Fold:
Amino acid sequence: MLNYFKALDDELPRRYVEPPEGKPASNVGHDLHPVLVRDVHGRKAEFELDRNSFQCEKYYPEVERILKVMGGKCVFIFDHTIRRNLESDVNRSDPKNCGPTEGVHIDQAYWASVERVKYHLATRLLQLRVRIINVWRPIANPVAHKPLALADWRTLHANDLVPIDPVYPHRTGAIYGVNYNPARELAWY
Structure:
């Protein structure tokens, strides 16, 4: 079962990283639907970043090395997040102690990607090819509870995307929620 986008009110969808006093953390809900998710174990070589929008690899120094092998001249790592089982966390109010993101979403809207480059690096880099690539892996053991599922971007349709503003204390970003569409089956892995 995957959680697709659901509006909870008539306002623009947003999630506050640090909610203002008296405001809910988000006005985005979940629209639960069953989907077929295919296991990629033993099939990792079939998936390439440029073709499928995801690829299975290892972590930090390895990630930097791999991204450079894939043609990256400069690698800048930002937004390191460790997802934890919140039932066992001691300090749940710490923003660094966050559980898995349970809604179907895309982490960066195009314009937000451009703003990320300006914010973290330099505007002049936008004259070159720039890509924001998410890297994820389980830390110690295979994930049995709330595993990551990825969709091949070629099975998405622009009409199914809903802009959502993540609101940080010093800036606003943009991600996409995904509406469930029974006419289109996404290729989940």
Summary: The chain has a mean pLDDT of 81. The first helix runs from residue 49 to 52.
